[in-house]
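Backbone-to-sequence.
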């Protein structure tokens, strides 16, 4: 079924964005996921964010691992570059692609099994290296594709559809990302498009590793009473720390907000994140206090969502490796082989 393309017919009066595309130009093939799967709502939010940001689809590289979640790049941005890699190995392939061509926008899509179970090491190193990318985990607490086994993010004490209790402690990808140095960390819920779209836009504008953990219920294997990843459970326990307005560098900032309730964070590309604090004592720019607050709320059974941490200006992997400003495929022979005199100079520097 994944080979079924959507009909290319457009209504002539569909609204076009600044680069001339309709929202439909950001869609992909027909989804083959179960009806009601949270992952499809995330795909819709990615489409909306890219369309609203006037991103040219051919400037995007979408990479994923293996799983229902990792299948989704087939269902959005059909005109972008795509690489469905090996289970848990998306981050290293993305890192290599990013180092070779820094001019594309990198979008990594993964699952909780893909990133917290088999791919945990890969996830950790991509975060600590601050690879410039948007990294979305579509987190349903199970291996959906292989029929609902607990994944490493399943909460201790939560129950499978057949009543089996999970006795293992969960891996909290948000806490890990914070600890490992990710410069943008957020959590959202697939049932909250109004929160997801600005978060994805903000992550795209960010100049380093932007991680978004999106709780995305698996309606087939993990949406029952006893699950802590069901639509009902998340709706009851979801607590947003902030609400974001995303303001592109090109637009005049017109919002008027009472002092004391808002914080602006400027990103490397000139975009501004305007954070309306919902929790008065939450500071998303202080890594240590944000981690402490998150842990305290988690102990109370709250699932904090929103932009949890952001470092406005940050050095990504290219900056720390001092790589060429030009993508490798744009370098000519003289750049790649500058000649004997240049080699002699380098060698002299080591003597
Ligand atoms: C190396 C390897 N081991 C195991 C598998 C089997 N496998 C395929 S998908 C998957 C888990 C997917 O879970 P998750 O990443 O949470 O995605 P979801 O389907 O829940 O969206 C597993 C274990 C595989 N494809 N490759
Ligand atoms: S099995 Fe679960 S995760 Fe996979 S498509 Fe169906 S609802 Fe979604
Ligand atoms: Mg999963």
């Amino acid at each position: 079924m994944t080979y079924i393309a959507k009909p290319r017919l457009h209504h002539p009066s569909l609204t076009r964005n600044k680069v001339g595309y309709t929202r439909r130009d950001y869609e992909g093939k027909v989804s083959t996921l179960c009806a009601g799967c949270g992952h499809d709502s995330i795909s819709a939010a990615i489409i909306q964010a890219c369309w609203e940001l006037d991103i040219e689809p051919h400037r995007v590289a979408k990479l994923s691992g293996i799983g229902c979640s990792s299948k989704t790049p087939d269902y959005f941005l059909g005109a972008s570059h795509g690489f469905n890699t090996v289970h848990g190995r998306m981050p290293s392939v993305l890192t290599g692609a990013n180092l070779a061509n820094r001019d594309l926008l990198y979008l990594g899509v993964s699952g909780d099994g893909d990133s917290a179970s088999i791919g945990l090491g890969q996830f950790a190193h991509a975060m600590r290296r601050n690879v410039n990318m948007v990294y979305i985990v579509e987190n349903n607490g199970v291996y959906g594709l292989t029929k609902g086994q607990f994944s490493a993010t399943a909460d201790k004490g939560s129950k499978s559809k057949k009543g089996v209790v999970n006795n293992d402690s969960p891996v909290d990808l948000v806490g890990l990302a914070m600890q490992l140095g990710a410069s943008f960390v957020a959590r959202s819920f697939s049932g909250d498009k109004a929160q997801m779209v600005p978060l994805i836009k903000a992550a795209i504008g960010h100049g380093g590793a932007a991680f978004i953990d999106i709780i995305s219920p698996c309606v087939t294997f993990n949406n029952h009473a006893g699950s802590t990843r069901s639509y009902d459970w998340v709706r009851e326990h979801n607590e947003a720390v902030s609400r974001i307005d995303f303001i592109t560098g090109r637009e005049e900032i017109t919002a008027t907000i009472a002092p004391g309730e808002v914080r602006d964070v400027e990103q490397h590309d000139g975009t501004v994140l305007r954070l309306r604090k919902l929790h008065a004592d939450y500071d998303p720019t202080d890594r240590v206090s944000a981690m402490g607050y998150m842990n305290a709320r988690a102990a109370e059974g709250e699932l904090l969502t929103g932009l949890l941490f952001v470092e406005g200006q940050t050095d990504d992997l290219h900056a720390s490796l001092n790589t060429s400003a030009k993508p490798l495929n744009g370098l000519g022979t003289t750049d790649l082989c500058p000649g004997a005199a240049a080699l002699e100079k380098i060698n002299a520097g080591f003597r």
